[in-house]
Amino acid sequence: MSILSTRQPAAAAALAGRYAALRGRTERLAAPLSPEDQTIQSMPDASPTKWHRAHVTWFFETFLLVPHQPGYRRFREEFAYLFNSYYEAAGPRHARPKRGMLTRPSAAEVGEYRAHVDAAMARLLRDPPAEVLPLVELGLQHEQQHQELLLTDIKHLLSFNPTHAPYARRWPIGAVNPQPLDWHLYDGGMFELGHDPAQDGSFCFDNETPRHSTYVAPFALASRPTTYGEYEAFIDDGGYRRPELWLAMGWDWVQTAHREAPLYWQREDGRWLNHTLQGMVEIDPHTPVCHLSFFEADAYARWAGARLP
Questions:
Q1: Which residue positions in the chain have pLDDT lower than 70?
Q2: What is the pTM of this model?
Q3: Are the beta carbons of 23 and 118 closer than 8 angstroms?
Q4: What is the per-residue pLDDT across 233-246, written as a single tens digit (0 to 9) for each?
């Protein structure tokens, strides 16, 4: 019993520190954005920054504070409806495509909401019941997912600004050294796939289980990702004009929207530019290419005489 009593406060303090650090990171990611930036929704599959900040806060309020913190009162009752996403068991929710119409609550009010929940979570984490620990971990992993989404969504939003307004000016981030393309050979056979939490107790999402055996045919894996320069060669070779390279649905996708390059690419004075979080920059041919659709990645792989993993 003495070992448990000395370790529990340290573990609780570490968890509380991790909670504060991750929550603080979300606010730092939102800091360069104006209230107007945080309200707009650029497409139905994206969400405003303000909504991301509120939704991850709603998670901790709904699944930790309401059931596990005696005497806790919701910051605002209507937030349970406004900031639920797809949690059917948690009740009805505001339609996802209309999140950008929520001019109220303001970004400042969402900040007050976060502070209210963080203060209550700090009290809960001083001596957390054992049953809440997995939920806290899930909430932290969930918030990190939304940190990625926050940047993904604001990048898409700012791409529509004709001034190419940057999220932050830190370009170039660093030099990218050219790497040769080699192929690593792998023997086929039966392999164990999936996560087994019982092995080390580490976190995993439910779609990473159960661990199971599966047969994998022999294959060779490229030593590095495909680069912007290699994808540009695909474009120059008529990649977007050759139906034999595309799946049928992919070719329809190209034709319907008259696509000639991936999302965020723009031709200017004979060179390709790319919209990034740092604004519009010239494409670096040695950087791993990103923001390809599945159709584009599949067509490129076929053009390159390979296939997707």
A1: 1-8, 171-173
A2: 0.90
A3: yes
A4: 999 999 999 999 99
